[in-house]
Amino acid sequence: MVSLGTSAFLLECPACKHEFLVPRRAEGKRIACPHCRKVIVAQAQVERQSDPLVGKVIGGVKLTRRLGAGALGVVYEGQQESLGRRVAIKLLSKKAARFEVQVKRFQREAKLAAQIQHPNVVAVYDHGFDRGVHYLVMEFVEGGTLAQLIEDAERLPWRQAVDVLLQIARALELLASHDMVHRDVKPANILITSEGVAKLADLGLAKQEDPTGEGTMLTMQGMMMGSPAYCSPEQARDASTAGHAADIYSLGATLFHAVTGRPPFQGKSAIETVRMVLSQDVPEPISLAPELPQGINDLILDLMAKHPGDRPQNPSELIGEVTAILEAPQRAARRRVVRDRSGGRAATRRKSGNGPIVIAVLVLGILIAAVVALMLTR
After folding, report:
1. 163 is catalytic
2. Tens digit of each residue's pLDDT (9 = 90 or more) over 118-166
3. CA nearest 259: which of 215, 292, 226, 293?
C-alpha cells in the first residue's frame, strides 16, 4: 500500500464513498476521485473522532494510521511486531463480512496474491482472521499512486508513462503465467515508489482459471466489474468472460490518461461512461497531446481496440510490441485498428502493405458467415 507522508489528509468521495489520501498542496482545488472519476473539491474535512483501531494489534500488526477505505475494507499503516517492519494492513469491513461471497473474495485475493512474488507487484506477507476481523498484511510503499502523479503533473512525459506501462506489463506477464487476469488495472491501482518503481496493487477483482469453478461463481455471468473509465468493452458486458486482452485494454486506457491528462471516456455517470466505452471510438491521443510520437499514439489505439482479438493477446506480446515501437517512436505502428464503412466490428490491418489482402479476407469471412447463417435458418 502507499503513503504520502504526513502532508496529506483523508477525503471521502460523496459518489463512490471511497476514502483516500490527498496531498495538502491540493487542498481547495478541484480533483477527480481516483476510483470513480467524479470531480470534487479537495477540502479537508473536520477531523474525525480518533479511530478506535489505531493502536490496536491485529494479525501481529500494530495499527498506527488510517490510510483509506473502500466499499469492502479499510487500510491502515502499521508495524509488524515480529519483524519490526512497516507494513500496510487491509481489513475487511464488518458490513462486507456479513456476506459470504465478499468474505470468499477477500480470502481469494489473499490466496492469489500470496502466489505472486515480483518487483512490480505489491507483495502480500500474511493473511488471516483475528479479533473478529479478516486481514491482509501487505508491503508498504512510500510514494504515491500513478493517479496522484498525473493529477500533480496534469500529464506525464510519454517516455515516463511508457516506462510505467512496461513495468506493469511485466507484472501482468507474471500474473498471466499463473492464469490470472487482474480486471482492475487503472492509475489508482498503480503505486510509484520514490525511486520510480511501479507496483501493481489490489488483486481483489482478479480472476484465476480454476477447474473447480469457484472463480466463476464469485463473478456471476453478466456482471460488470472494474472501473468504467478503464474497463474493456467485453468486461463491461460480462466480467466473467474477461481475459488477458481485457487487462491489455485497461493498461492502454491508463497510458492514454497518463499522456493526455484525462481518461479516454468520461461520462457524467458510470452508466454513461460504460455506454461510451461500448459505442464510441477512442479519441486520437495525439489530438490531445500534439507532442506525442505517432508510434505511441498508434500503440494506444491498438491496445484499446474494441474487439479483444484486435489487441495484443497477452502481456508478452505487448512488451515485444512496445520494445519495437521505442526503437523508432515517430514511425507509425505496425498494427492499427480501422472500422468498416458500416461502423461494424473493428478489424486489424498491418502496415506492411498487406492491408487490402486482410480486408478482402475479412469480407470473405463475413460472406461465408452470412451463407452459413442463411442455411441454418432453413
Report:
1. no
2. 999 999 999 999 999 999 999 999 888 999 899 889 999 999 999 999 9
3. 292
